[in-house]
Design a protein that fits this description.
Length: 356
Amino acid sequence: MMGDQLRICERRNLSRLDSIRSETCVHASRAHRSFALTCIEGSWKHLSSRCRRLSAFFKKHAKGGGNTSPVTLRSHLIRPMPGGAARLAKYRCHAVSPYRVDGTAMRQRRPRPAPIDGASRTARRDSCNQLQSNSAAMPNSTPFDGRTRKGTAMNFAIERLEIEGLLLVHSKRFDDARGHFMETWSRDAFRHHGIDLNFVQDNQSLSARRGTVRGLHFQLPPFAQAKLVRVLHGSVFDVAVDLRCGSPQYGRWCATMLTASRPQQLYVPKGFAHGFATLEPNTVVAYKVDASYAPQCDAGIHWQDPDIAIEWPLVTRDAVLSPKDSSLPAFADFSSPFFWEKADRTRTQHRSVVPA
């Protein structure tokens, strides 16, 4: 009787352990297979210790000569395993199995992206919507929603010059032991300051000799150009002449000195003639334009026109010019196609009028 009960006990425990092991192998992924085998090993150890306790239990009752109570025997047979079963239960709660009980693969849910820099879900959704709207818009007409990074806008300061429309842009420069860093152009920051342009071309010139004059140049509509000029090496005497009919400063000039050592740029809007004279040898000038070069619209005015009377900081005989710039027409022969934004076009003459 005792031997049969012992064999029944061992058979039940073995079948229970086999079911646990098969179920664990079905539900366990490769990443958690080692942990599942550890749980199985713990179950085997627990089973061997239980068998030893059962053997001691039967021997004790056999020596006593009495029959074993079914209730006492049942409490030893079905007592839960505190080690392996608890670990397996914890494993099943925290592991994500890629398989069902029948062995078929389950559909995997994509993980939710973590917040970026602590941003909320609403902020991430707004950022994604903004990126989608920008990508869907035309490349030359990106909408501006008014949301400008404050730090970017603060990297530029705008100084208005004597003639309305001309701006001197000061960039914030960050100096350290390595050198310096600064922003020279930012669409959002310039829009914040009222300059809404889409530059399409960058130009650069090297003037080997001091006293080199380039100008006065401009392009006629519909390829008129706005410029953002800066000096990369050396220094220049930079000049802009107002050609807008109806402007109070029509025909007048304004000049500033741009150097590579100072983080400044000159913004020249459409309707101005632009030119400069180099103050140092090997001067490098770079500028952005918002319209491509059009030879059929290329125009200019002589740099020493007496009606404009620019006070150049150089002697005429020392000036270095190209044959094209030397033969540019006079301002009195120029019929301006440009208009001042606030002018009444019906009352404005197209023929240039030399200011008094």
